[in-house]
Specification:
419 residues, alpha/beta, Rossmann fold, seven-stranded parallel β-sheet, six-stranded parallel β-sheet, 18% strand, globular
Length: 419
């Protein structure tokens, strides 16, 4: 199949999840024998050697909101490529490629990794309503109707009324050949901060919850537990805040941004992978946990037991006691009591206080600290890590993801042609 893949808002190569996803999908489809032409923003250096034809194409002025201005250039290129399928990475202001699919007789696939619908209280939704005809909502819904197939980790972020046979629910993945226990490579020379090392990798954004891991390490130190430390690998807007919170703690180290090629060895140097997501810190997540968390899949592929909150879809990705340790966090307006129950009510109870019965009231960070203590047991870590690796290979490899894409494109083509 001749495939045109439009993802001009993503850098390749790059360190962010979107960049990794686009490169993995393009390379994975090419490895299955398809002819892939991928439109991306060029990153630093060259993409890994593969059969993909990479075409540099940035959004105007680097703004994803101006992607449609590339419609003419993409149309000219598409007429030369004559694709059998067009895949576009969805953006609210996109549509520059998938709109071409019907006219070219190509199957159109839309990758949706962020909400098409508006979350409650959305500023964009209020602006759209002020324009009376709601042009932004109508445009987004039109893109979904054009698509022969929509690939998404969570169908709840799609507009209602779409035909179910056009929706393919599919998780992201990990390169299970590069990410594995004992992966060697040019990882940054980071000294182990403690005998047991937890790692947080990825972009530092508020909802990724890195600050919770810092607070958990502080709690462990207050309990005279200095045997568990943390490495923070990556960069992002929350990094200064996280670094400030960790100032003076010798069992925490920061690596800064790391190229994705160096990440397998970095993860293999740790013992526990931590994904302390904080859904309350990002309003769109009120629609549900629509992320397909790259860090979790790469931890699992590396054979690291995963520590994460038991919220929304996460227990379906990581089974507590089988591939990792999931911890309960307090709902809004309540506080977690060590042992797994909650105190309801409208007032916040600070971490470390007690209720009237004397029960210890814990925060997100307390619950995370308790989970890390459980994984201080090397036998348990080994068992969970082995199971995590096995599940990653079975369910979360990029090769499995691309085979599912291939099948979805073939099914859509059959529906379109009637044969």
């Amino acid at each position: 199949m001749n495939i045109l893949y439009a993802a001009i808002d993503q850098e390749v190569p790059g360190t962010k999840g979107g960049s990794v996803h686009v490169a993995a999908v393009a390379e994975g489809l090419a490895a299955l024998g398809h002819q892939v032409t991928a439109l991306v923003t060029p990153g630093a250096g060259e993409p890994r050697p593969s059969a993909v034809r990479w075409i540099p194409m940035r959004p105007p002025f680097g703004s994803t909101h101006l992607r449609l201005a590339r419609s003419g250039a993409i149309a000219t290129l598409a007429r030369g490529v004559r694709p059998d399928a067009i895949i576009e990475r969805y953006h609210n202001f996109g549509g520059e490629a998938i709109r071409l699919a019907p006219g070219l007789g190509a199957v159109g696939m839309l990758e949706v990794n962020a909400p098409v619908i508006d979350h409650p209280g959305s500023t964009k939704a209020r602006l759209d309503r002020a324009l009376v005809v709601q042009p932004m909502r109508r445009w987004r819904e039109r893109l979904c109707r054009i698509a022969d197939v929509i690939v998404t980790p969570n169908a709840l972020i799609l507009p209602p009324g779409l035909p179910p046979d056009r929706i393919k629910v599919l998780e992201w993945g990990a390169d299970t050949e590069r990410f594995h226990p004992g992966a060697a490579g040019a990882a940054p020379p980071v000294p182990p901060p403690a005998p047991t090392v937890a790692i947080f990798s990825g972009a530092f954004r508020s909802w990724h919850g890195a600050i919770n891991l810092v607070d958990a390490i502080k709690i462990l130190r207050s309990r005279d537990r200095r045997d568990i430390g943390a490495i923070f690998a990556g960069d992002g807007p929350e990094l200064p805040r996280v670094k400030a919170a960790a100032a003076g703690i010798d069992t925490i180290v920061f690596t800064g941004a790391i190229s994705h090629d160096r990440m397998p060895a970095m993860l293999a140097s740790a013992h526990i992978g931590v994904a302390p997501f904080d859904l309350a810190a990002h309003a769109p997540l009120s629609l549900g946990f629509y992320w397909s968390p790259l860090k979790i899949f790469e931890y699992m592929a590396t054979g690291l037991p995963v520590v994460a909150p038991a919220v929304d879809r996460i227990p379906s990705l990581v089974a507590d006691g089988r591939e990792g340790v999931l911890y309960e966090i307090p709902p809004e307006g309540g506080s977690y009591i060590a042992g797994g129950s909650y105190i309801a009510g409208g007032s916040y109870i600070a971490s470390g206080s007690h209720d009237a019965s004397g029960s210890y009231l814990a925060s997100h960070a307390d619950a995370l600290a308790d989970a890390l203590v459980r994984l201080g047991d090397p036998v348990l870590r080994a068992r969970l890590g082995t199971a995590a690796r096995a599940r990653a290979v079975r369910d979360y490899s990029w090769s499995a993801h691309c085979r599912a894409l291939e099948a979805a494109l073939a099914d859509a083509r059959e529906r379109r042609t009637g044969r």
